[in-house]
TrEMBL record, chain A:
<keyword id="KW-0472">Membrane</keyword>
<dbReference type="InterPro" id="IPR035906">
    <property type="entry name" value="MetI-like_sf"/>
</dbReference>
<keyword id="KW-1003">Cell membrane</keyword>
<dbReference type="GO" id="GO:0055085">
    <property type="term" value="P:transmembrane transport"/>
</dbReference>
<keyword id="KW-0812">Transmembrane</keyword>
<dbReference type="GO" id="GO:0005886">
    <property type="term" value="C:plasma membrane"/>
</dbReference>
<feature type="transmembrane region" description="Helical">
    <location>
        <begin position="113"/>
        <end position="131"/>
    </location>
</feature>
<keyword id="KW-0813">Transport</keyword>
<keyword id="KW-1133">Transmembrane helix</keyword>
From TrEMBL, chain B:
<keyword id="KW-1003">Cell membrane</keyword>
<dbReference type="Pfam" id="PF00528">
    <property type="entry name" value="BPD_transp_1"/>
</dbReference>
<feature type="transmembrane region" description="Helical">
    <location>
        <begin position="70"/>
        <end position="96"/>
    </location>
</feature>
<keyword id="KW-1133">Transmembrane helix</keyword>
<protein>
    <submittedName>
        <fullName>ABC transporter permease subunit</fullName>
    </submittedName>
</protein>
<keyword id="KW-0812">Transmembrane</keyword>
<feature type="transmembrane region" description="Helical">
    <location>
        <begin position="265"/>
        <end position="290"/>
    </location>
</feature>
<keyword id="KW-0813">Transport</keyword>
<dbReference type="GO" id="GO:0055085">
    <property type="term" value="P:transmembrane transport"/>
</dbReference>
């Protein structure tokens, strides 16, 4: 900058720092508060004296939660769906994105196939027909109900196919000259070269699988088959006190399960918080990937 | 000729086949299932055995006293989210752009899009806790300023605004990053030239930064048009309760309650079809606007 900043600019910059740091904290402090509540004793949480630091520190609520058999069962179902769901979804994404990244002259029905997939993002049969279809294919109450119906993520396909298109075609041509076919080319050239893009899409898929709660609620008839997120939904949200008036709520001893809920909220968000540094790194990359078009 | 070409391309068809089958079954077959909107659908009779009743399901829905209010809630909440979701990130990214301290800039960026990755189950749990009128920390803080406890999630006056604000809180970081990415592509020479010409920061923002962001603003604005009937099922479902149905019940939650809890499959499908058709029209319009004004292509 050529000039010394003027007084009004200094005041503006001062305010700007305060506002933005405040905004940043506003996005983060609710989670800190919940963590503090989860580590506080029952009376402290009930009395509402916990702010951002545990009062009367105890791990009791975590012990309680982790000793609940249903919690561990739900966790195991979630682990299975994350691993299987991500693997299957990624494989399908790769197998769809590669042919669609070809020009129509190399893959005759490329445009028709692309519209076949994109149309599903524009129009859908809606909740009930979808439920009936999943029911009719016999997936209700099985792990596959959480994996197969949503396995084709069109957004990820588009992301990856745009990345494929950005790769130099000469690489593939050299593979063809060496006598390789499309499968060799996908496996030996496209897949290794698109590792950063694949990593981005994989991370998003893992987060999506971990977070998805509605399909469990919808497609599992017995709560023992819920994945963790659906189980948490029934524990944390469905038993909420908002449909009781303020006076009633104060009179209820039930408020003491606030620390248990807080502990479960925190455990439910922990994997996301742990993945976050990676998510953040790939996040901007993912946005850029999606916008790279020829 | 065609035969030869197909023989060379068959691995491509084979690769795409599993995806095609899954989409055919789980995305296209439900579209056939929309037929139940015109039926008195009974599951054990199936789509081919159930009685056809024409438009009776639609008549039934539009005669319900709450339907008008629910459509209004949906559009009102969705519209406010669209507007807020556009303005807030633009302002925040402009403010972030003024920061010269890289560490603080990166730190703020890191914090603001954390909520984007958390589900509404987790965030619902957090908001139910911190917005509680008795023990919630938000009302404790407001109390310091002498404000009476507000029943954010339980009063019809506050509920829709709580939905809009918490949704913007969750998502503004995402668009902010998109805008910041667009800002980095503005040529720094423009700012130097403007400084030489005596333009202050405000004028630089108005004449260089904002025009530089305009294409991406137009893109996000037109694409968000497709959301006019998406008031956010995940959020509403995890935050609402019967006492705020009046102000917070939206089409998607209504469909769920009627269809899955009330087992009125035909009626729920009819409302779903109503929503799908209107959304489809808006999405197609928004995509064509986006391709016209922002050179946007889906693939």
């Amino acid at each position: 900058m050529l000039h010394k900043p003027s007084l009004s600019r200094k005041i503006f910059l001062g305010f700007n720092y305060v506002i933005l740091i405040g905004l940043g904290l506003l996005c983060f402090l609710p989670i800190v508060h919940i963590l503090a509540v989860s580590l506080s004793s029952k009376w402290a949480a009930t009395a509402g004296v916990v702010k951002l630091w545990p009062v009367d520190f105890t791990l009791a609520s975590y012990q309680y939660v982790l000793n609940k058999p249903q919690f561990m069962v739900a966790m195991w179902i979630t682990v299975q769906r994350v691993v299987l769901g991500t693997a299957i979804s990624m494989l399908l994404t790769l197998l769809i994105a590669y042919p669609l990244s070809k020009e129509p002259k190399d893959f005759k029905f490329r445009t028709q196939y692309a519209w076949f997939f994109v149309f599903t993002t524009l129009f859908s049969g809606g909740l009930i027909p979808r439920y009936m279809t999943i029911r009719d294919t016999g997936l209700i109450d099985t792990l596959w109900a959480l994996i197969i119906p949503g396995a084709v993520a069109v957004f990820n396909v588009i992301l990856l196919l745009n990345f494929f298109r950005g790769l130099p075609k000469e690489l593939e041509e050299s593979c063809f000259i060496d006598g390789g076919g499309y499968i060799t080319s996908l496996w030996n050239i496209y897949a290794p070269l698109s590792l950063p893009a694949m990593a981005t899409v994989t991370l998003f898929t893992i987060v999506g699988q971990w977070n998805e709660w509605f399909d469990g609620l919808l497609l599992m008839n017995s709560p023992e088959k819920y994945p963790l997120s659906s189980y948490l939904q029934t524990i944390i949200v469905q038993t909420n006190l908002t449909n009781i008036t303020a006076d009633d709520a104060a009179a209820l001893a039930d408020v003491s399960n606030r620390t248990f809920k807080a502990a479960q909220i925190f455990i439910g968000s922990l994997p996301i918080l742990l993945l976050y540094p990676f998510l953040q790194r790939f996040f901007v990359k993912g946005i850029v990937l999606g916008s790279v078009k020829e | 000729m065609l035969d030869k070409k197909f023989r060379r391309q068959w691995p491509l068809h084979l690769m795409i086949l599993p995806g095609v089958i899954i989409v055919l079954i789980y995305s296209y077959w439900p579209m056939v299932g929309i037929a139940m909107a015109f039926q008195k659908f009974v599951p054990f009779k199936g789509l081919f055995g159930s009685e056809w009743i024409g438009l009776d399901n639609f008549r039934y829905v539009f005669d319900l006293p709450e339907t008008g209010q629910i459509i209004w809630n949906t559009v009102f909440i969705a519209f406010m989210k669209i507007i807020g979701g556009l303005i807030v990130p633009i302002v925040v990214s402009l403010l972030l752009n003024e920061l010269r301290n890289e560490l603080i800039k990166r730190g703020v960026q890191t914090l603001v899009y954390l909520p984007h990755f958390l589900s509404w189950v987790i965030l619902g749990g957090i908001f139910i806790d911190i917005l509680s009128p008795t023990s919630g920390i938000v009302n404790q803080v407001l109390g310091l300023f002498g404000i009476e406890p507000i029943f954010f999630l339980g009063s019809n006056k506050w509920f829709p605004y709580t939905l809009v604000i918490t949704d913007i809180w969750k998502e503004f970081g995402f668009s902010t990053i998109v805008y910041l990415a667009a800002l980095t592509s503005i040529n720094p020479a423009l700012y130097e030239a403007a400084t030489v010409d005596g333009a202050n920061r405000w004028k630089q923002t108005w004449h260089i930064t904002l025009p530089g962001m305009l294409p991406i603003i137009i893109l996000l604005a037109t694409l968000s048009l497709g959301n006019v009937l998406n008031a956010g099922f995940d959020q509403v479902f995890n935050l609402y309760s019967p006492q705020v149905y009046e102000s917070g019940d939206i089409l998607d939650t209504f469909i769920y309650r009627i269809g899955m809890q009330g087992a009125q499959y035909g009626v729920a499908t009819a409302i779903g079809l109503f929503k799908s058709i209107i959304s489809f029209v808006f999405i197609v319009v928004s995509y064509s606007l986006a391709s016209k004004f922002a050179n946007y292509r889906i693939f």
